């Protein structure tokens, strides 16, 4: 892995990518935030040695480095999903690269189904904690102690400090944000109504198909993490209608202005 990371860094440094402080992983429909990055250097995933290639329509697939709200950032516009057939090691490889570049704080975003019936499609949710329901873990296999501990602590995976910053900024913008537990399933099918009831029973407020692997690796790498879900739909069985990917995209389209304002104001205040 270290050899691979070095080769990846070599290409990124050749393209002019320096030392970003904040990493961003932009979920379905939320990649537009990358367009706000100033003095940007864009590197398509297919140019990057050892990066997997994204296959899902609607996921752009490039790294964008530059300045956002006065901070040095690097964004993944489009992420890799387990359901696409990649190993979790491949899914989380970019997080390893972020760490090696010098990223200290990671903001992870996604579109998710609302499981908590107090939520509405279009809400933003600050992730307070997660449940890994993928029955797979990106840290399985030999552990390289230079990358992190064998048994990393997950008791405060989502930084208390960044969560309260996020809530403060939301209040300043008069955005009503939710807070809750994100449950990651493998996908790619959406849940059954019975699975959604199970997720609610085990303590989930939102459900999606990403984020948890990246957060596990970010914590293994000792990065500070903030997670934000866009509740793009109510999960299966809550409303009398089937779920569609186009609904997910439409809702994220409708809230992306709020989402971008929120993330930008959080970044402005991050220290
Ligand atoms: N379930 C799982 N993943 C999702 C959903 C959902 O309802 N909406 C967006 N991503």
Domains, number: 1
**Uncertain runs with pLDDT below 50, 5 residues or more?**
none
Largest sheet, strands/sense/barrel: 5 strands, mixed, barrel
Q: What CATH architecture do you see? A: 3-Layer(aba) Sandwich
Radius of gyration (Å) = 17 Å
CATH topology: Rossmann fold
CATH class assignment: Alpha Beta
Number of strands: 9
What ligands are attached or bound here?
hypoxanthine
Query: Helix and strand string, N-terminal first?
Result: HEEEEHEEHEHEHEH
- What gap, in angstroms, lies between the N and C termini? 30 Å
Number of helical regions: 6
Mean pLDDT: 95
Name the CATH superfamily classification. Answer: Nucleoside phosphorylase domain
Shape: globular
- Roughly what percent helix? 25-40%
Structural class: alpha/beta
- Provide the β-strand percentage band: 15-25%
Q: Within the largest sheet, what's the order of strands?
A: 5-8-7-6-9
Domain Nucleoside phosphorylase: 21-268
Family: Belongs to the PNP/MTAP phosphorylase family.
Keywords: Glycosyltransferase, Phosphoprotein, Transferase
Catalytic activity: a purine 2'-deoxy-D-ribonucleoside + phosphate = a purine nucleobase + 2-deoxy-alpha-D-ribose 1-phosphate
């Amino acid at each position: 892995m270290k050899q691979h990371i070095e080769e990846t860094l070599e290409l990124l440094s050749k393209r002019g990518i320096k030392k970003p402080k904040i990493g961003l992983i932009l979920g379905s429909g939320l990649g537009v935030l990358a367009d706000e990055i100033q003095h940007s250097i864009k590197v398509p995933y297919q140019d990057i040695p050892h990066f997997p290639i994204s296959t899902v329509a609607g996921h752009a697939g490039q790294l964008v480095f530059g300045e956002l709200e006065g901070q040095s950032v690097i964004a993944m516009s489009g992420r890799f999903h387990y359901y696409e057939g990649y190993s979790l090691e491949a899914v989380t490889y970019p997080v390893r690269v972020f760490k090696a570049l010098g990223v200290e704080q990671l903001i992870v975003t996604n579109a998710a189904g609302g499981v908590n019936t107090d939520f509405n499609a279009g809400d933003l949710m600050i992730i307070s904690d997660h449940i890994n329901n993928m029955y797979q873990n990106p840290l399985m296999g030999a552990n390289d102690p230079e990358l992190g501990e064998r048994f990393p602590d997950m008791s405060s995976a989502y930084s208390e400090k960044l969560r309260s910053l996020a809530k403060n900024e939301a209040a300043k913008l008069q955005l009503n944000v939710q807070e809750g537990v994100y449950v990651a399933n493998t996908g790619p099918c959406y849940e059954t109504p019975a699975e959604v009831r199970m997720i609610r029973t085990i303590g989930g407020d939102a459900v999606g198909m990403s984020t948890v692997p990246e957060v596990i690796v970010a914590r293994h790498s000792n990065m500070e993490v903030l997670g934000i879900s866009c509740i793009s739909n109510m999960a299966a069985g809550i409303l009398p209608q089937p779920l569609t990917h186009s609904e997910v995209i439409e809702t994220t389209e409708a809230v992306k202005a709020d989402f971008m304002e929120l993330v930008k104001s959080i970044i402005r205040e991050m220290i």
